[in-house]
From TrEMBL:
One of its GO terms (cellular component) is cytoplasm. One of its GO terms (molecular function) is DNA replication origin binding. It comes from the Bacteria. Residues 1-100 are annotated as: Domain I, interacts with DnaA modulators. This is Chromosomal replication initiator protein DnaA. PANTHER family: CHROMOSOMAL REPLICATION INITIATOR PROTEIN DNAA (PTHR30050:SF2). Residues 122-338 are annotated as: Domain III, AAA+ region. Residues 155-286 form the AAA+ ATPase domain.
Amino acid sequence: MDLAELWKIALAQMEVKLDSPAQFKTWFKDTRLLDVKGATAVIGVKNSYTSDWLQKKHMRMIRETLSYVYGSDLQVTFEIDKSLVNKPSPKITAEEIIKEAPMFTATYGQENHLEQTLKNAGLNSNYSFANYIVGPSNKLGHAAAVAVATKPGDSYNPLFIYGKTGLGKTHLAQAIARDLLETDPYKKVLYVSSEGFLNDMVKAIRSGKNIQFRQKYRTLDLLIIDDIQFISKWQETQNEFFNTFNVLYNDKKQIVLISDRSPDEIDGIEDRLRSRFQGGMTVDISKPDFEMRLAIIENKARMMGISLPMNVYEFIAKHVTENVRELEGSLQKISLYSSMVEEELTLEEVAKILGKDTVTKREKVKVPSILKHVSREFNITVKDLKGPRRTADIAFARQVCMYILREDFGYKLEQVAMYMNRKDHTTVLHAVDKIKSKLMIDDGFKNQVDMLREAIQTSDL
């Protein structure tokens, strides 16, 4: 039996044992058996994150399964396989992502102890890697967080996580802490906001307990500080945190920082502090795409005991795009309304409840504002947009504007033609069809239009 066949059989058995399509695709699918040297099997992986994760979470299963298929006991090692490095990751469906996985396996009595340990550390017991939905917008952040949880103080120190509000930065950071405490509940872990750090420092100064304050923060195994950007307001706090940072870093203790902006965008902090923020790994958590939003909604619904038709989940995922908190709020709102009526809600009713129906949209955003946004996006004037000129750039911008007026705001073809100073509504029909077709085949253009739509919905122009 050659190596490829041997590994194929072993993978098939491990896939059954895992009983998690998402886990298997993420960590096992892009691996190879490179060699068997004596009693040691060498497995090729894409990167160090995969190697660390497989060693920590699945080493025993891999070793036992491979030994059984091979016919004798084998030890297992991992190597980065260059042929796998640039191979695109397998696509994971929403159904696979939300497949239920145990959050914590414990004997009787240990769960309560864990809950108390998490509470003492300032952690939310609902935040873990097991229920963190991974997609293109946060894949790098998740991989870095897993690496930090595997080798705290060693892999990436500090880990600086930034992004807009409500995208799961705190969840990811606290998942690191939970993983560390599940492995060793005696580790000293603390999650605190920058304001909480300031308050502790002020209390220590007023009560003459500076030594106790420093002992509390400088003997930690893991320190997570949220909203670190606010530290720019307080000079003395910067000095104290700088010294705390140095002690923890020199002792190889892990530091995780959370912010709404990257280190180089934080005004008012000292250069020496900024350089330390940038000295480890900086990861950006961005807005989730449709597939990921749908997975998040289904997962949230399952956790909250909510059951709604799939087309409702898809509607929410399509129209609520800002952040995870808004998704959760929309889900709860629809669930509440649904419980108050006997019949299933129609999509028109769902749209009205969420303020996503065309009437509400038209009340919130007027046509002149839409024209201004489109004109600015394509670097032309509103006069050009509504005028007779037919150069390629103007005609294309005009078609995009017609598409948005028709598809997003539900105006009739005749109305769109009137707003755009066109005599014939068939021009609008042609424009809508053309833009629809381009959106289906051009991802770059789709991203541009999605951002334009979002700007139109949220701007005060």
